[in-house]
Automatic annotation (TrEMBL):
PANTHER family: CHLOROPLAST PROCESSING PEPTIDASE (PTHR43390:SF1), SIGNAL PEPTIDASE I (PTHR43390)
Enzyme Commission identifier(s): 3.4.21.89
Organism (species): Leucobacter alluvii
Pfam families, per database record: Peptidase_S26
Class in the EC hierarchy, top level: hydrolase
Domain Peptidase S26 per the UniProt entry, residue ranges: 23-215
Protein name: Signal peptidase I
Chief place where the protein resides: membrane
Subcellular location field: Cell membrane; Membrane
Family under the similarity heading: Belongs to the peptidase S26 family.
InterPro entries: LexA/Signal_pep-like_sf, Pept_S26A_signal_pept_1, Pept_S26A_signal_pept_1_CS, Peptidase_S26
UniProt membrane topology term: Single-pass type II membrane protein
Length: 239
């Protein structure tokens, strides 16, 4: 092989290597986008926290991942932090701009947190058939007559009640009673009893259960219910 032919062969090899790399990169990106889209559609979805109602568990601008198998395949449990569509009248109008351009594309395939104004994040306190009331002599919420100890709630200095207002409700089957962890700064079930849904959240409106706080990284944590919070509640419901 002549020197010219060898040079031409090397150039073809380099071009082939570059084209092969670009082709493989394109395939990887397409697969990644497809997997992300499928995850967002069927399994996991990302949301951001717009308000202080779930402090200190969740803070403004935190990002959470939500398991969308709840409640369709996995039952909602007391203590779950759930994301649900506004049943009507829960949310104050916000002036945020809808996502545009590349951000909108990333949201649609699940690579960016959903920043729309139609979702609410709260903690489940009562499920279908539960009687939820406030408060006992120590200021605790009661579920089926059992006082629950809630280490996650935030109360202003000097306040000892888990709720500033009294309530006594029985949750309809297929619905939820939800409250924010920041009890005195949360427009939750208590404050929506004058709405058509009487403060209850239909399970069909639940997008899923938040299972991890994934951003910012220095606050990364798994989300769940402190052990023992609802001990005895099921047994009391059966009696």
């Amino acid at each position: 092989m002549s020197e010219a032919e060898a040079t031409t062969s090397q150039q073809r090899t380099r071009r082939g290597g570059i084209l092969g790399f670009l082709r493989d990169l394109l395939v990887i990106l397409v697969v990644a986008f497809l997997v992300s889209f499928l995850l967002k559609t069927f399994l996991v979805r990302s949301f951001f926290i717009p308000s202080e109602s779930m402090e200190n568990t969740l803070q403004i601008d935190d990002r959470i991942l939500v398991n969308q198998l709840v409640p369709d395949l996995i039952d909602v449990q007391r203590g779950d932090i759930v994301v649900f569509k506004d049943p009507g009248g829960w949310l104050y109008p916000r002036g945020s701009e809808p996502p545009r351009g590349f951000e909108r594309v990333l949201q649609s395939i699940g690579l960016a947190a959903d920043t729309s104004n139609e979702y609410v994040v709260k903690r489940v306190i009562g499920v279908g058939g539960d009687r939820v009331e406030c408060c006992d002599a120590q200021g605790r919420v009661m579920v089926n007559g059992v006082p629950i100890d809630e280490p996650y709630i935030v109360q202003p200095a000097g306040e000892e009640r888990a709720s500033a207002i009294d309530f006594d409700v029985t949750v309809p089957e297929g619905s939820l009673w939800v409250m924010g962890d920041n009890r005195y700064q949360s427009k939750d079930s208590r404050y929506n009893q004058d709405q058509p849904g009487k403060g209850f959240v239909p399970e069909e409106e639940v997008v899923g259960r938040a299972f991890v706080l994934n951003w910012p990284l220095n606050r990364f944590t798994w989300l769940g219910t402190p052990e023992g919070t609802f001990t005895g509640v099921d047994a009391a419901k059966e009696n």
